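Could you please consider the sequence and fold appended to this message?
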Amino acid sequence: MAPRKEKTEKVSADEAADTILNYLRRQPTSLPTCITKLQKACLCHCPKPTLYRELTSYTVSAAAAKILKDLHERKEIEGRAAGRSPSFSMASYRPNIDNTCAPERLASLDTEIGTLRDATTATLNTAKVLRASLVSLNSTLSTAQLRSTITAQEEEKISILSRLDALREGTVRPVSGAEKEIAEKELRAWKGVCVARQKISVDMWTLIEESLPEGVEKGELRERLGLDE
């Protein structure tokens, strides 16, 4: 008597699809898996031996391919051409983007856009003025002259700094407030003396002019007296 065949539990398409998805979820999305490798690897994640046999059997490989195709059409997995048989991997995560926006946010964005537009206009106007200034400078001074002027100013700066360093390191001491006040007082006194002497000189020359004899030149006389020195 021939031995009876062992009854196998019928596997549904949903169970096969879940097994495939469970395996692919454990794989990097950047490394697709071909159908043959996928069928053999499902043993690790297969809850039923019968399901594994159906996934790896040559006679039902078309059914496995159909399951993969259905998953691909539902955007649950991604398929790529790889030689004779396609490769599959889990679909990349695509967040559900909400395109709606509150009126307050829209008003804020309009205000920000207006501010940026005004700033852009002001920047363009400034750039226009600077271009005009550059054109004017190029028309008055050549590039060689500008470089020469800059070099001369840098040399002058170095000279001033060297003199300043010498003063700082030398024996020259700063003038105190009291000394400065005394010097200013003496300066004011000498200015008064100078003004008084100038007035006396003018008065004396007036008297001399009134008593000059005929034939004497005023210019020659002022030169001999040293009044114009």
The beta strands are 33-34, 77-80, 87-90. The helical segments are 13-25, 35-41, 49-56, 61-73, 103-140, 143-169, 177-210, 218-225. Residues 209 and 218 are 7 Å apart (CA to CA).
